[in-house]
Amino acid sequence: MKLRFLGTSGYGITLTRNLPSIIIDGKILIDCGEGCLKSLFKFDYPLDQIQAIFVSHVHPDHILGLISLLFKWAFYTKNKNFKEIRMSPKIYVPEGYKSAIEQIIQVTFCPFENVNYQIRLIELPYIHENPLSLNFNTDKYSIDWIESIHHPKCYSFLFNGRLFYSGDSAPNKEFHNFIPAGTVIIHEASFDDSQKSLAHKLMHSTPQDAAMLASISKASQLILTHLPDLTEIEEEGFLKEAKKKFSNISVAHDGDLLSID
C-alpha cells in the first residue's frame, strides 16, 4: 500500500496543513477535511479512480471537504452527462450517522438529484464478525474497525492488518488487542504532553499517549497526525518525551508519502 497525507492538521487549516485526509493507492480516502480536493489535484490523483471513502466521524474538520468533492464529481467533471444516473464512490460512515451526512447535504442545498447524481452512504455496524472486503481490479483490501473513545462516535480503522488509523480518540486500551504486531500506526496527537489532562477531557491524545500504544502493540512505526500548529523547532519538543517510550516516531506533514509492504 502507498498512502499520501493530504491533510494533517487538528488545529484548523494553516499555511502548511489542511484538515485531516489520507489517500491509499489513489483509491481509498480516509476522512475528507477541508483542502482535500485541492490536495488531490496538487498530488495528481485522478478523481475518477477513487473507489471508497471512510469517514471516521462527523466532526466538521473530518467531513466538510466531502461536500466540495461530491460537487466536483457531480457538476464539474469533464464530459459529464446529466441525463445519465451517476453514483458517488461508496462512503462508509459509523453506525447511526448516515442520516447526519444526509442532513448536511440537505441543509447546504446540494441539488445532486437535478443532475442524476446519487450519493452512496453505507453504515458500518459496530458489532460485526468479519472485516469488510473490497476488490478494485488487482488491489484487494480488508478493512476492520473499532470504536474509539470520542464523541460523536468515531471509528478507528485497520487496513490489510498493516495500517491502523486512530481517527480522533483519547487513549483506548481496546486498541491493544486490536492492533497486530508490526503494524504502522497513524495516531492523532491533538495536544502536547503538557496538556494531557485537557486532551483526555476533550477525548483526544498526546504524543506520549500514542507512543505508549505503539510500544504495547509492538508497532513497526508511529506517525502522528491531527496536530496542533507546530514550527519545525516546536516539532522536536513535541516528540521529545514520546521518543522515550517509542523511538520510531515522526510527525506527519501534508504531502508525505508512505509505502507499506
Write the layout of secondary structure elements.
Blueprint: E1 2-7, E2 21-24, E3 28-30, H1 36-42, E4 52-54, H2 60-75, E5 86-94, H3 98-107, E6 117-124, E7 132-136, E8 139-147, E9 155-159, E10 163-165, H4 174-178, E11 184-188, H5 196-201, H6 207-216, E12 221-225, H7 232-240, E13 249-251, E14 257-259
Parallel strand pairs: 3-4, 4-5, 5-6, 10-11, 11-12, 12-13
Antiparallel strand pairs: 1-2, 1-14, 2-3, 7-8, 8-9, 9-10
Description:
The chain contains 7 helices and 14 strands. By secondary structure, the chain is of the alpha/beta class. The protein has a single domain, classed as Ribonuclease Z/Hydroxyacylglutathione hydrolase-like (Metallo-beta-lactamase, Chain A), CATH 3.60.15. A 7-stranded mixed sheet has the order 6-5-4-3-2-1-14. A 7-stranded mixed sheet has the order 7-8-9-10-11-12-13. Strand 10, helix 4 and strand 11 form a beta-alpha-beta unit. The longest helix is centred in the N-terminal third of the chain and has 16 residues. It starts with a strand and ends with a strand. One of its GO terms (molecular function) is 3'-tRNA processing endoribonuclease activity. This is Ribonuclease Z. Its EC number is 3.1.26.11. Keywords: Hydrolase.
